[in-house]
Every structure is written in C-alpha cells, then in structure tokens.
Design the sequence.
C-alpha cells in the first residue's frame, strides 16, 4: 500500500503514468446486479477529456475505456471491476528539455527526492491525467447511488482566477466547457482565458459540489466522519489546496445563533453545516467547495535547480491546461461519489437493522 | 471498523463518551526504545484541559492519564500502548432537559437517526471531550518526531470570531490561554469572550499549524498524499469545517508565476504550497489552517424538533466552551503530529534504501 | 498498525502485558441496539479463566471485565466498545531467573531481536494471557451472531497429546475442565495430565470448532475468503501450528468423487469442504480443526543462550499451563465468532440487495 | 474492498475471470530502484502455465504479461505496478452444459447464492486461473527479497494423492513437471496420473514450502503474526484446505521437551517451530505445508441441483487439471514471497532504528 488505493468498502486502485502505455484501475466492492457497460463510464470520461475546448490542454486522447472484468451479460457480478484506458498521444520528447530540471510548484522535485528516480515524461505518476481512473470509478459510483438511493452528485466552477461565478442553473453548467453555472459570464471567462494563455501564465479556480438525496445516517463518528473522508478525497486531487464543507471558512466569523441550522418537522431551515453533523449526513444537500492552485507548468521563465542541485531557469512548453480547475468538476464529482458510495455500504453493514425511531424530515 | 481508528502504521484507536466512566485509546506501531512516561502525555493533556481559564468550559477534569501497556522500564517496547483517562466530573442530569431534543448544529440528531439510540449525556461519543485521546496519541508522536527527526509541530489561534490575530511570536502563544500568537491582542480577545459569554452565544475560530523540520519525501502519491491525510485528519476534529494547506483558498486568485515556489540551491524562495508538492513533503515548513465553527450548545433559544419529530425550542445550559477553537490548538497539533509520524514510518518502509541522488537543499 | 488489531468491519484492538497493570481492548463496528452487559462477556472469560482445575496454570485471576464505553442503558450504541481487565496476580519476580535467557520454543528470543527490548515478565505481550481480549470480543460476536442469525459457535478438545478424543456430545464438553466431548475419557485425561505435570514436561493438543447456522453467502472471493480469514485468525492464537477446514489434510488422499460434497434439494450429502466453497459459506456447518504445540515453559532443563548470546541452560518454574490446548477452546471459538461476524457485516454491506434467485436448501 | 486485495505495505490487487478478456493486477508498495522487466515475471508465469505436460489442463495460454506502469527505464519507480495477462483460449461454450447446474465441491453454488448472479464460464472469478496474478506479484517479491535480503522462496510437491514424495534435492524439483523433489518417483507419479485421468476422477496433493535466509525479526505480535498472515495467504489459494507451519499437526503428539527448539551460540538445534516464534521470524528456514483438495470438475457423474433448486446430475468435461496441486507449487511460493516482503517492509517501518543488542546466531 503506497497511496494508490482509496476507500474502505468501495475501493478503487489506480495505476498508470502520463506517457506510459495505459492508465487503469480496479474497483472492488461494487454490489452485484448493477447494469453497467463501458458507455456508462465513457460519458463521464468525455466530460473530463482533454481537447474539449481551446482553453484546456490540446493533447489528443479519446480516453476510451475497456472493461476487463466484473461485468457479465451487462451486470456487475460483485467481483473486481478492472478497466483500462490506453494512452494514445504520448510525446515523451516534449519533456527532454525539462527532464533534468524541477518545475516550481510541481511534484517533479519531491518524487525525485523521495524515490531517487522519476519518470520525467509529463509528470509520470504525478500527472493529473491519473484522474481518468477516478472519473471512471466515480461513474460507477454515481450510477449506483442514483439507482439505489436517488442520490445525484454534481459540481460547477464557482470561480476562475479572481472571477467569481455565482450559481444560476444546472442547465448552464452543462452548456459550456468551463462547467460554469452562469451562461452570461462565459464570454468573460473566455476572454480571461485567452489573455492568460497569451501571457504564458496560469490561474487557480474554485469548484463547488452538491450531493442531493443523501439519506440521513451516512458517515461514522470520530475519525471516519463523512466530511473527513470527503476532505481527504478532495485534497488528494491534483492541485487542490483547500476544502470546505458547508459554510467552511465563513464559519469562523459566524455566531452559534447564526451557524447552527434550526430544525422544524419539515426539515432544516438552513444548511451551514453542509449536510453533515458530527461526521454523519443529515439528509440535506452535502455541499463542498475546493480551491485549486494554478498550473505549475507555465511558459514564463522561472528560477529553479536541476537534478544536480545547481541553479538554472525553466520555461515549460508542452501541452498543459492553463487552469486545471476547468476540467476539475467531473473529477471532484467522481471523488465525492466514491466517498458517498463507500459510506453507503459502510452504513448498511453496521446499521442495516436500525429502524427509524420516529417520524422525521425526509432524508 | 466504524471510524474509531486512525492511521496506517502509526495507528490510534479511541473509545469513550463524555459522561461514561472513561476515555482511552490504543497507539499501535510506535517504534521501540522511545523514552516515554505518563508525564510526556500529561503535559499535552494539560494544554487542552478544560477549566484553564474563564473562557472555556468549567467542567473540572484533571485528565490524568494512566499508561496501561507498551512501556517497560521507561521505554516503549514496540507493542500496543494502551492508556486510560477517567472522567471525574460527569453530571448526567445536566442533560435531562435536552435528552429528548436535538441541538441545532449538533450531532445529536444524526447519531439518533443513524444508530436509533444515543447516549444523550453531553453528546456521548460526539463530545469534543474525545479529543483527549487524540492529544495523548499526538504527544507520543510529537516526542518521537522531535527526537528522531528534529520535527516540531506547533499551532496557534489565528482568528477568534471576526478578530484576526497576526502572528508575532511562539513565546506569545504559550503565554495566554487562547494560544494567541500576539500578546498585545489578548485584552481584546478577553473582552470579546466576556461579552460573548454574557450574550449566551458562541463563535468560530481559525487555528494555524506549522510543522518545522519535516524532511523531504514524506507522503505518498495519488490517494495517500500527505496533504490528503492531513486534510482528513483535520476535518475529523469536532467543529472543523474547512482545511487549507499553504496558500489554500488564496491560490484561486493567484497566477502560476506567483504561486509556484521558485527554487535555488539554498532552498525555496516562498512557500505557497505549504511544504507539500504532489502530496510529498518538500522539506519546507508544512503549513495548515483550519476553520472551526461556533459551538452548537448555546443558551439562546432556538427552534428544533424532539425525538418524536415534533416542533419545540431548545436552550442549552450545561457547561460548554463558547468557542471550541480556543482549546483546538493542541488538538490540531496532535492530529498533524500523528499524520506526520504515520508517513515517516510509511516512507521508510518503502524508501529506506533510497540514497540522495545529488546535493540538495536541506530537508 | 503493528499487529494489534484484527478484522475489517468488526474490528478488535488489543493491548496489555502479562504482568502490566491491565489488559484491554476496543471493539469497533458492533451494530447498535444489541443488549449487552459485563456478564455477557464475563461468562465467556470464566470459561477461559486460569485456575479452573489443577491441570492449568494456578495464577489467580478473576479476569473481571469492566465495560468503559459503547453501551448505554444496556444496549450497544454503535460506537467503540472499550473494556478493561485488570491483572491481579502479577508476580514479576518469578521471572528474574529467566529474564536474561531465552526459553526454547518461546517468543522471548524473537521479541528481543525484533525490538531490542522486551518485557520479560511472563512473556510480556507474547503471553497467552492476551487471549482474554479475544474472548471478550468473541463474547460480543457470539451474542450478536446468535440473536441476529441464529448462529452458534462451539468447540471442543479433540486430542490431548497423543490421546484422541472422539466427539460424543456437547453436554459432555461443558461437564469437564478439558472441554472434552466425551465424559468417559476424562479419567484418562486427568491421569495423563497428572503424570505430565509430575514429569515437568508439557504436551500439545487439538481443538475442533463447529459454527452452526451460518447462512450461505458469507465470505469474499480470492484473498478475502472466509476460510482464509479463519486460518489467519486461528494461526494468530498462541501456540497454534496448524489449521484445517473441513476434511483438511485428509483431502490430500481423497479422490474428487469422494471429496466433492454432492447436493440434493434437501441439502448437501456430506461436508468435506467444512461449510466453505470458493471462500464463501455454503450454509452447512463451518468446521475447523487446529493444532496447538506444547507449552514452551517447562521445568525440564534445556540448552539455550542468554541475552549476550552465550550458551546456558534454562529451567522454567513459574506458573504455566502444561498444555495450553486445554484452555484454548473458548479462545478459538472467540476468534471464529469474530471472523464470522466480520463477514456477516461485510456480506450485507455489498449484497444487502441480493434476493434469493430460486428455491434452495436452507442456509 | 471485497477480497481482491492482499497485503498491508506490499499490496496486490487482482481482477479477471477465466473466460473474460484478461487478468491483471496492481502491485503497490514495491520499493523504487529494483531492476524489473516483463521477463522477470514471465519466467515465474511459465512455471505455472497450463499445458506444460499431459497431466495438467490442456488449455492453451501463453500467459504473456505486459507491464503497464511503475517501471521506468528498467527500474521500479516506487509507484503502482500495473500488469495485464490477456486470456487467449477462452471456450465459453464448453460451459453451456453446466451453466445451469452446480458442481459438487465447486464455488459455483456459493457465488450464485451470494451474488444472485455468476459468470458460469470456467468458474468465472472463482477459477484457479486467477492465480496468474498471484504468481506475477510473487515474482516481483521474490526478486526483491533475493536482492535485498538474500531470501529464497522455494516449494515442492510432497504428496500426490496418497503417494508421499520424500525430499531428495532442489535439482530434482526443477527437472519434472510435478515439482517433485525426487526424480526416482516421477515414473510412479506419471503412471498414477495417467490412470487417474483415464478414470475421470481427480486427486488431492500436498505442497511444502521453504523460505531460506529470512532474517530474525519479521512479523508482528498478536494478530499480525508472520505465520498468521502466511496461513491466511495459503488458505486463500484455490483448493487449499489445510496449512501447517513447522511441525504443524505433529506438534499435537509432541512433548515440550521435544518440540521446543533448543538454542546454542551457533544457532537452533532443530526447527519444529518452522522459523517462527510468537509470530516473529527466528532466522531459521520458514517451513510451510499445505493440503490441496481434489479438483471438483470431474467427468464422473455426480448428484447435484440446478439453478432452480431441482435435483439433477452433472458430468464436467471441459479442460481441467485432474490435480490442481501439480501446478500449485509456484502459486504457493508466490504467496509466501508476498507475505514475507510485506513483513520485511512492515518491520523496517517500525524497527529501522533497532540495533542488535548483542552477538547472536545469524539471521
């Protein structure tokens, strides 16, 4: 175990490097009987796929998934689901110029120091291309959560650099390559990205997530909190530097009389807690917000050192997303779906026999 | 496994309820030969102890720890370290008034719905009093990290409600009951707390953490990132709603040319990444910031429902911290120390034979 | 994690040493709502207790268990169940004579070499006294399995040294201090033990286990097989050197036409597989047999080395079971119960929605 | 997590079905810098490969392995090693005759009942063909153990049905398709197998394993014992019904004065404990013996039920090993190697700083 598996009962194991032959993964613990085909996964991979607009990396990958096991006659069998996504557009030579240098803000340096060896081609294992595996695993989780519990997991880009993007509608999210929830702002975002790309620089972003329909009771006390697992899952996504649940950092300035969500027989009157109390879901929307840092591979020259420790400068050409946050929405959704599914299974393992002790708000 | 254990190789298991006979824990995986006595743990428990000032709960607990195993003739043996902290000041009847109601913003409701049963006395398992176990486990981790790797893990209160507390010195942190890093502000903080307590309300807080001396290379790729484990650990602390590493949410508005920490043969020129790149420590300070929500148990009346689902109101008297953030500093330090120790062990398991491939900045 | 926890969803963590202040444990994952009190555990501890006859160690321990958490108003709450068993009859000085020597066949040597330090008093952590924790955890598992699924887990002594003890009845098992299933042989066993004790030597034993009422479907494929987990659990018991499921080693000499258990609409016609096929329970009795080696602490002189590596001899007086197998029955039952409960929870996590695809034999 | 992963720090995840497109696996936790190529794995796969003699299944599989990640320029990088073995000789229609029936002694029935669905083609996930993944993972472990610690892991067939095969030499083992350690008996074994095949029946077998060069100190106390993990790993192999360490079941009839291995400054004088005391390696050979049941797929007619629960009979043609034990030697070696490597890493995580406390026998 060295960090390539994730989840307790819905467990995802991932492998692959940016310029190796393939990425792939194993999903273990999926309940049997779920209708599943490659298209169920492909549709989510396509949302994350590079080359979908001029604002993201121009690497050409179809990201075609092949299911290798765990599905028989169109249904999951309950055994391990292996899947493979071949790399198609490797250009290892793109990286010869930087193979001996470390990009500021990149994992180049830490992998080199930790392992004494690194695959310098496109970041190797550290590449954000690894997120194809997460999206594939998340696609299965999303389908199961929807069918079994009516849970939907969705996200949107809530800030691109300094531009805040207020939520207007889920329709808007699907109608532009930014996952921006407000069509009126898309022109501004495009202009911003064009100028950014032109300048050779990169920018950060914020992505918000909402899981609707989560029943009350998912999550475990103390260390196994639903929100703790969500926080870990989010922070494991490349470039993420911050995670909030519900009111998040705004909680600092709130009074208890403002923050604590009052209850009525019809349900909660607010959702500062983001659908989680004491680490256990309340039945409200689970709301999450994450901060993504700007891409570290930029064209602007920067001071760094080389693999012998000597001072040098670096300019990264290659094909990189000027804002990794743009494609982060389906990735973050996938991670949230995996955590929720894991806790759905964990909850029913222990509490399958609990009967509702009274009449309560839905959830 | 239902959420009461934490860590892969340095593993902490916790039990106990606020008004049960005792809290306790088991630390498994501590290397043998570490000099350890109850005082090493007690000193950290005392930092977290209730009743240390008028600004925190007046529950009287000595929080005296008894080591039950794993230490022989003053040294750890490498076997499980069991320890016990008896509760001394239970007042279960304090809770009879609210036993049939749910406090807004409290885990009362979710425990009840998840398990169909709950120990209503002082929050039962959901009580923040559980953090004694974390602090005890963290004390051992702190000692080992210091002795073996020269790592120090410290924290401070960086905001109390809306009052930001700029860092002045570590000496200041130790000199006041708020862990405030700026003695000049203590008068303002006390006044704020006195008014808050008077009003029957509560407030949030921010705590910052710094781990110094962490060598380069701790942390694992993909899902086992050091920062992912830190985020999960922090979000598992009662009342935490947000976690940042390094520049955190400020990364959103940064350009890549600003965020990416440049390197020279003497070291990094900035630390936006908070000492972690690609999930692996860089050798810089590991910096973390967390948001704590206001206490949910307040005297002000609030709308809620009872255990039959009927509408009612609730006013919580009892003995509660009006700001759980005030005592959160040693707790958050403990969690960070546990994560770091876990990764120190994980790193040397896999990479014990890696020899430095060149001459690099310290770390 | 250094070997002191056990189980995936029904997870037991153990601590304590033979001559330290106490043993204790934490059971995590128990479903809420189970009626539980100290007596439920005590009754099983009493079956394992030392001093129950002249044939076992004369150490005087009441093995009184105190439940510290996880139970409220007589029912489990779903949170961690902590419990404590104080040592009462430590006699550390008994061990001064052997503190600098290694007993042949004992863990003395390996602990010393692994950790560079050891608690020499009574074997320290290696003492079979640790099994109190297993028995306590198993008592809870037994109760839940019985109430929820009607599963019973029982065992008996099937051989004492070279004396085979054919099964006659469960009544006989309960009627003698050997857990021998055949009252007619008890006189012979007593005579054998008296002579053995007289001679200063020790002997091995075999214990058989039967779990009745296990439903079909518990266990997971490939590495998570029910029988694999049983084998690991059994071999983790002090002194166990062999484990068989069903026909066990007799399978070697069987033909497929003899071994493979035929089926009819009324059920299986034999049980060579011991209730497990492909790692998954069949609905038949789960049958297990284990071999226990003779106690390593004997009065007869033996060649060994001391802690400086020099040749010496050793004679162990102290208070030891001349046959650890005699008290092993409740211990092995406990481990089997824990594994079954773990798999019961794991099974319903993944397969809660599977509906019987046809009409099949019970189980 | 549903049973398809194995190991704590050297962690193997497996997927694939007998008649699906491919088997594959992910090895996580391998130290960086190990020279590794497909041939290192292929040589072990070839030892296990079907069709190597007339005595095993005639399915034609080259079992060609493709490494997909984790290796760069011929060395492991420390990241996840993904690998793939395509199935080439699927004949799903072979199974149409038995798709609606359950083979006595086969996992057919339990998978069907557990999951409510099964891939009937060749046993699906229950097929012993899954062991290609184990052998591949074991090949990496063997290479690392040899290079880093000088450990060798070898096995041999010690009984074929009722025929015991006394050990003569390791040269003999490599010189016949049975892995029999005694060339003089090969003629007898061939005659036995020819008659068995002719009869349409199958037989059991025993395989012995020896790990040489294991240093003292590997293994953890209590539940994480080296022998407990070995027992679990062995029992997880298809058809295994019994596991012994050292003297195993013979320990029952031994006296303590006979069983306990005496020590001298030159080392142990015997090895009844099989190289493990208290769950920790002694530095002696680790010796293991396993019992494999006869193949359940036989041509002889047997009583069974069908998927509607009705009585019927079954005769299994297809291509099956009449004795799965013949090809089990490399599989069992692989599992032992994986367990040893896992414990090597676990040991150095916790005990890297332990210095030898004196002068002791090698190991």
Sequence:
């Amino acid at each position: 175990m060295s960090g390539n598996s994730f989840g307790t009962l819905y467990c995802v194991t991932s492998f692959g490097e940016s310029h190796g032959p393939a990425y792939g993964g194993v999903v273990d613990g999926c309940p049997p009987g779920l209708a599943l085909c490659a298209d169920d996964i492909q549709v989510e991979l396509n949302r994350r796929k590079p080359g979908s607009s001029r604002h993201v990396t121009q690497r050409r990958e179809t990201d075609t998934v092949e299911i290798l096991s765990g599905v028989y006659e169109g249904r999951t069998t309950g055994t391990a689901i292996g899947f493979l996504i071949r790399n198609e557009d490797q250009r290892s030579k793109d990286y010869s110029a930087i193979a001996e240098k470390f990009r500021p803000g990149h994992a180049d340096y830490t992998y080199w120091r930790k392992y004494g060896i690194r695959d310098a081609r496109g970041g190797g294992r550290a590449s954000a291309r690894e997120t194809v595996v997460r999206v594939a695993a998340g696609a299965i989780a999303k389908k199961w959560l929807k069918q079994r519990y009516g849970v939907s997991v969705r996200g949107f880009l809530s800030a691109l650099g300094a531009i805040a993007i207020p939520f207007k509608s889920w329709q808007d999210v699907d109608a532009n390559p930014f996952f921006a929830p407000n069509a009126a702002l898309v022109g501004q975002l495009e202009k911003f990205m064009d100028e950014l790309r032109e300048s050779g620089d990169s920018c950060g972003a914020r992505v918000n997530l909402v899981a609707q329909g989560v029943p009350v009771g998912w999550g475990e006390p103390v260390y196994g909190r639903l929100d703790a697992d969500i926080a870990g899952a989010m922070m494991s996504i490349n470039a993420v530097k911050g995670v909030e649940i519900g009111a998040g950092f705004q909680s600092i300035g709130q009074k208890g009389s403002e923050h604590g969500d009052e209850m009525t027989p019809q349900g909660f009157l607010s959702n500062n807690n983001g659908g989680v109390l004491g680490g256990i879901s309340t039945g409200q929307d689970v709301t999450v917000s994450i901060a993504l840092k700007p891409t570290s591979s930029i064209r602007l020259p920067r001071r760094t050192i080389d693999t012998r420790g000597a001072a040098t400068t670096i300019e990264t050409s290659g094909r990189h997303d000027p804002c990794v946050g743009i494609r982060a929405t389906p990735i973050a959704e996938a991670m949230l779906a995996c955590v929720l599914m894991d806790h759905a299974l964990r909850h029913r393992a222990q509490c399958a026999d609990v009967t509702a002790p009274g009449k309560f708000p839905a959830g």
The interface with chain D takes residues 1-5, 7-9, 11, 13-17, 20-24, 26, 28-29, 32-33, 66, 68-70, 72, 75, 77-82, 84, 114-119, 124-125 of chain A (CB under 8 Å). The longest strand of chain A covers residues 152-160. The two ends of chain A are 36 Å apart (CA to CA). DSSP finds eight helices and 18 strands in chain A.
